[in-house]
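Lab notebook, bench 4. Still working through the backlog of constructs that have no structural model yet. Next entry is a single chain of 142 residues. Request: give me the structure tokens for it.
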Amino acid sequence: MTEILKRGVPGLKSVKDLPVVQDAPPPGGFPSIRIERRLPSTGPTGVAIFAGLAAIMGYGFYQLNERRNEKRFEADEILTVRRAVQPVLQAEWDLRYLEHLKKEREEEARIMKNVPGWKVGESTSRHRWLPPLESWDKRPLI
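Model written out:
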């Protein structure tokens, strides 16, 4: 029960003198109260986003694997070509070395022609000198 206090009413000496007014719903009832949460559905759902990202990542991993296979095939092809060409390149390097050695000995003979007892091409040290061993895979393929 709700009691309404009316100000300015003469002779109000007690609470018991107040009129009793009972609350009641308006005619037709109160309007319904919306208690559920209604958010507009904007954008894809979480499952759709997850599926999309999983598909993108799967495609990315597929492409990565394909590129790795291509690079492996290309590297194997280059190695095969180098192995096939290596004897020819080694022969060219050997010919260049022999030409260089011949020019050096001719220069040595020209410079040391007036030195008695000098033998061209003979080593002046007790150690045996060997030409540097160059790895075929470090040389440029020209």
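Notes after review: The beta strands are 2-3, 20-21. The mean pLDDT is 83. Flag for follow-up if needed.
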